[in-house]
Give the backbone structure.
Amino acid sequence: MALTAEQLAEGLNALAAREPAVATALSRAGYPEPRIRERGYRTLLRTIVGQQVSVAAAASVWNKMEALLGEELLPETLLAADFDALRACGLSRQKQGYARSLCELVAGGELDLTSMPEDDEEAIAQLVRIKGIGRWSAEIYLLFAEGRADIWPAGDLAVQAGIARILNLPERPSEKATRELAESWRPHRGAMALFTWHCYNNPAL
């Protein structure tokens, strides 16, 4: 379950109470909306399909895959699918490799998305075993699909830009600096991440 509006407000209010810049930004920009994704294999498969293509192109590929493999897009069905048939859906050789990596881990029982490790770093380590899923994709999944409260995707350029706006920094901080800046925001870094996305291109700031 993703972070609810109430959880987001609770986390941001706690940060605003000890960080004047957050309080100021919150008063101007308001609270972000929850971002919710389905928990499980389909969301990760959608992530792979959507990499480096437009939203419209990804939707087109997904619809063709559903027509070919059935709406459930079961891992076993995808693994049994012909290379050329998947390519005709718009799935490149590289993405087929990524999708098969995900399907093999799930179908083989090596990756149980219904029972991920409670420790965030251990959960990230499980997810990045999937070819094509890096740390950022793993963090986004855990934040949006599992609602983990302290996920901090410091490598996200929009998070970095949002931090610069909220804290009135002269330039966008590096990933390392973004990670360091957020240490004092534990255990509410997930709410702060959503707030940075809400703020980075917000005309109110």
Q: What stands out?
A: The chain is about 60% helix and 0% strand. The radius of gyration is 19 Å.
